[in-house]
Amino acid sequence: MRVFLTTDRLLLRRFTEDDLDDLVRLHGDPEVVRFLTGGRPTPRAHLRDQTLAKILAWYEQGPLSRWAAVELSSGDFIGWFALEPGGGHDLRQAELGYCLRAASWGRGYATEASRALIAKAFTDLGVHRVFAQTMAVNAASRRVMEKCGLTYLRTFHQHWDDPIPGTEHGEVEYELLRADWTRRVGPGGGGSGS
Known about the structure:
- The protein is an alpha+beta fold.
- The chain is about 30% helix and about 30% strand.
- The chain contains six helices and eight strands.
- The chain has an eight-stranded mixed beta sheet with strand order 1-2-3-4-5-6-8-7, with helices on both faces.
- Strand 3 (about 65-70) and strand 4 (about 75-85) form a beta hairpin.
- It is globular, with a radius of gyration of 16 Å.
- The model has no long low-confidence stretch (mean pLDDT about 90).
């Protein structure tokens, strides 16, 4: 198991091909994927051949990717967190993302791990800008972004061939620059992660 970081309650590790069943269960829960697919489960073949294949390839290309999140107290897979290459292959920018099982919601896990990822991005990975995007109507995700110090940047509209409810309100983007993060936490860094 290749651990990327740990927080007080979570371990973030590299995905393996053995994680496919957990991904299928996660992305098969209509409530979990409400703001991703409108509640439609993601097919197993897509998760295996595209999602998981892309994640595993990223591990060979550099430090930015997506990691399986495991609850330390139980050892259970609870979802994933990401610092994915942003703006094409610009490794100075990282897109923060997260997707957690509904049973794990409301426990502060998204904020805890996201803060640790942001700290790692700015202190260890050479990232200058962390950003995150979600549907404008996804209030819970927006709250996590704000708790992590990201600030609202813009609302934008994309064209979707098969729009889901809420799409008409657009997408929002939040960001945090390393210089702003450093001013907030001090020169020694911060965050709960290793």
